[in-house]
Amino acid sequence: MQDYTVATLIEAVYELFQSNHLSYGHGTDNAWDEAVALVLTVTGLADDESVLDQSLSSSVASRCLSVAQLRIDQRLPLAYILGETQYAGYRFKAEQGVIVPRSPIGLLLRDGLQPWLPSSVTTILDLCCGSGVLGIIAAHVFPDARVTLVDVDAQAIKLARTNVAQHKLEERVEVIQADVLQQQAFPQQFDLIITNPPYVDASDMSSLPAEYAAEPEHALAGGADGLVFIDAILEKLPLWLKPSGLLVAEVGASAPALNQKYADLPIIWPDLPMGGEGVFVLEGAALNSHTAPRLQD
């Protein structure tokens, strides 16, 4: 095998990805960033220009190229192959069978959700938590808060507990298995509710790229209009959210359907730090002072 530096290996992986027409969106959105993520994760090196000229052993280079070939052959998200992912500046365990974290909500959380969030946050709820990453980031950002993570899927719950332990947050973060569609009440109301529920509508579910189809269908499919889970959350929100609290939710490409369905609800669509769309903010006070058709059903 030829000798590689970090820079030349990234270039080699990039060329492999470019020539094989992969789909991205699980933490990166292009072949170059995916190649960088692969090489830096496998080597354990920092994301810094100072490492680019560092020579790599043949075994490390071979490992990187093998992972790249698996990515091409199996059309799996890179996080599944590596067993971990870096998201919003934190590292988390990942595994096939649980959706790969990528929500723009993570970056909004990292920035403190200003100017919408009340000054005091002591209780946080992460609905449809998957591997637990949003709730864990919230626990880091709001160190005085207690956080509850909720998901219906047993594998996701197990992985969320692993990530909570990895971040040494067991004393403040509780993980419970429950169905958002059936859940009626929690022991208390929350200052902040965050959710990245399944929201892909039926039309888009029928044409997913292979990398997205490799994720569990139940973590993506949101019914005909993509809003089955958001409908249930909004219906019960007055019970779960304090009047002074805040809901932050992602609905992706189902945003137009949400706007049409809840035209009377004072939904805020914030500018996202890395661009994109489909994340909305709803203030508890605004929720309680407005009427939305669905909430009256």
Explain briefly what this protein structure is:
This protein has about 300 residues and is α/β, with parallel strands linked by helices. It is built from 13 helices and 10 strands.
How would you describe the overall organization of this protein?
It is a single chain. This protein is α/β, with parallel strands linked by helices and 297 residues long. The protein contains 13 helices and 10 strands. The chain has helices spanning 6-18, 31-43, 58-74, 78-82, 105-110, 133-141, 154-166, 202-205, 210-213, 228-240, 255-261, 284-289, 293-296; strands at 4-5, 55-56, 84-87, 90-93, 123-127, 146-151, 173-177, 190-195, 241-250, 279-283. The strands form 3 sheets. The protein has a 6-stranded mixed sheet with strand order 7-6-5-8-9-10, sandwiched between helices. Strands 1-2 form a two-stranded antiparallel sheet. A two-stranded antiparallel sheet has the order 3-4. α1 (6-18) runs parallel beside α3 and α2 (31-43) crosses α3. It is globular and about 65 Å long. The termini are far apart.
